[in-house]
From TrEMBL:
PROSITE patterns: THIOLASE_2. Belongs to the thiolase-like superfamily. Thiolase family. One of its GO terms (molecular function) is acyltransferase activity. Residues 268-389 form the Thiolase C-terminal domain. Keywords: Acyltransferase, Transferase. CDD domains: thiolase. Signal peptide: none annotated. Residues 8-257 form the Thiolase N-terminal domain. This is Acetyl-CoA acyltransferase. It comes from the Bacteria. The keyword Hydrolase does not apply.
């Protein structure tokens, strides 16, 4: 059957404030975090008849307990979407929500869906990284993967070994900048519009309301220099220049562009291309470089066409690896203008949609920019990249 590929647009995205594992969400269920996000999306977009949602794809890296039981379906039901709306669960570790978005985008492009919800949740307090995993020993013996590949912080140390130009001083400065940019973004009211307040409960403290991220902190180069290097004696990766362990959820509305326009839904970004790529698992953080190369090639673009970058800061060293590869300065103002995961946090499977939501906001503020990129590294040696076009750019073809 001949068919046309349809344009996929990002309509809207929201997230919970991100908590520290064991912090403000210690007694809050993981699924309640993502349910809160889906409800908010529906509330913020009253033009959307909820029965028009064709799919709900929700990512979680650990799919047991309150992140189990096909969370996309159960969260959709509990969020009040009609029972006719289906859903499923998805996992690609840190790129879970990114993969949820690109999966539903594929479905939208080929006409299977008109509108879909994609997002992710990770409650790293309730589900520590690697919980219940039983990696096949043959991955180490037959595939000659170094055992350090299974510890993300160790992969970041390995990346430092391979890229000696990226010094600890540079990663600490990048981390400090991330904190400063996030503090400024909060002071300027930039992050708040897409945060969904979450009621929290603590047996000890009673009820509370989470309205801001818990992880950002004041710091300095002097303080950062004194932190321990938990992944290697005399290493370079610290709690200060890595994303922490966090709890949080995100959700986004994706649509066929014609359907969005028919319903009067906002068009915040148009998808141009996406790609995933694999690298040696022991240098996991290198992954976004080949995935970005692939996504640029598919789009017929070069890095010079990209005016804004929202890159996941799992570790400062892996962001700097990408910036060095493309000859972009460590403090280039086009990169993570409101800081990143080092300050805000990185609840694994949820983060991809946070990057997209922020990029959409930057697009609205920068009509002179045509293209923007989201990229992130992914456990077991992968990277993911999505390229978007800015509908506010003057030459945008409707
Ligand atoms: C690095 C890591 C092990 C640190 O965990 P942690 O020890 O629980 O972290 P903490 O927040 O307690 O920080 C450790 C210390 O550094 C301090 N610290 C952290 N960030 C700081 C900063 N920016 N400035 C100053 N001090 C800081 C803390 O106050 C704490 O000090 P203390 O020991 O005196 O209490 C953990 O965050 C981690 O594993 N991160 C990577 C997550 C990951 O792999 N994600 C997937 C990516 S692919």
């Amino acid at each position: 059957m001949p068919r046309e590929v349809r344009e996929v647009v990002f309509v809207d995205g929201v997230r919970t404030p991100f908590g520290k594992a064991g912090g403000m969400y210690a007694e809050t269920r993981a699924d309640d975090l993502v349910i809160r996000c889906i409800r908010e999306l529906v509330k913020r977009n009253p033009q959307l008849p909820p029965e028009r949602v064709d799919e709900v794809a929700i990512a979680a890296t650990t799919q047991t307990g309150d992140q189990g039981l096909t969370i996309g379906r159960t969260a959709a039901l509990l969020a009040g979407l009609p029972k006719t709306v289906p859903g499923y669960a998805i996992d690609r570790m840190c790129a879970g929500a990114m993969t949820a978005v690109t999966n539903v985008a594929g479905g939208i492009a080929m006409g299977a869906y008109d509108i879909a919800v994609a997002g992710g949740v990770e409650h790293m307090g309730r589900h520590p990284m690697g919980e219940g995993a039983d990696p096949n020993p043959r991955i180490l013996t037959e595939k000659l993967v170094d055992p350090s590949a299974l510890v993300m912080g160790s992969t970041a140390e390995n990346l430092h070994d391979r890229l000696p130009a990226i010094t600890k001083e540079r990663t600490d400065r990048f981390a400090l900048n991330s904190q400063l940019k996030t503090a400024k973004a909060y002071a300027d009211g930039k992050l708040q519009p897409d945060l969904v307040p979450v009621a929290t409960r603590s047996a000890e403290l009673g009820w509370g309301l989470a309205t801001v991220d818990e992880a950002p902190r004041e710091t300095s180069m002097e303080k950062l220099a004194t932190l321990k290097t938990p992944f290697r004696p005399h290493g370079r990766v610290t709690a200060g220049n890595a994303a922490g362990l966090n709890d949080g959820a995100t959700a986004a509305l994706l649509a066929d562009e014609a359907t969005a326009r028919e319903l009067g839904l906002p068009v915040a970004m148009r998808m141009v291309s996406f790609a995933y790529a694999g690298v040696e698992p022991e240098i996991m953080g290198y992954g976004p470089i080949p995935s970005t190369e692939k996504a640029l090639k598919k789009a017929g673009l070069t890095i010079d066409d990209i005016g804004l970058f929202e890159l996941n800061e799992a570790f400062a060293v892996q962001v700097l690896a990408l910036l060095d590869h493309y000859g972009i300065a460590d403090d280039d103002p086009r990169v993570n203008p409101w800081g990143g995961a080092i300050a805000i946090g990185h609840p694994l499977a949820s983060s991809g949609v946070r990057l997209m939501t922020q990029l959409a906001r930057h697009f609205a503020e920068h009509p002179e920019v045509r293209y923007g990129i989201n990229a992130m590294c992914i456990g077991i040696g992968m990277g993911g990249t999505v390229i978007w076009e800015n509908p506010n750019w003057e030459g945008f073809a409707k």
